[in-house]
Specification:
Shape: elongated
Number of helices: 0
Order of helices and strands: EEEE
Strand content: 35-45%
Number of strands: 4
Distance between the termini: 41 Å
Structural class: mainly beta
Length: 63
Amino acid sequence: MSAPETLSLPVAASVHEHAWVTESAHVTSEGRVRYVRCTGCLARRVDLDPAAAMPPVRLSREV
């Protein structure tokens, strides 16, 4: 009898402090939307700058 086939589990991404850089941006009615990329792991996400006095808000998760 052969060993049962199993699916390998996905490898967890390394945890590090992301260094986000803006690749592109545009203004919408909700604020400024920025498409950012981490310079270390190349993960990408979308941020929203709702107002000049507020810090950016993440709209998506890293991919």
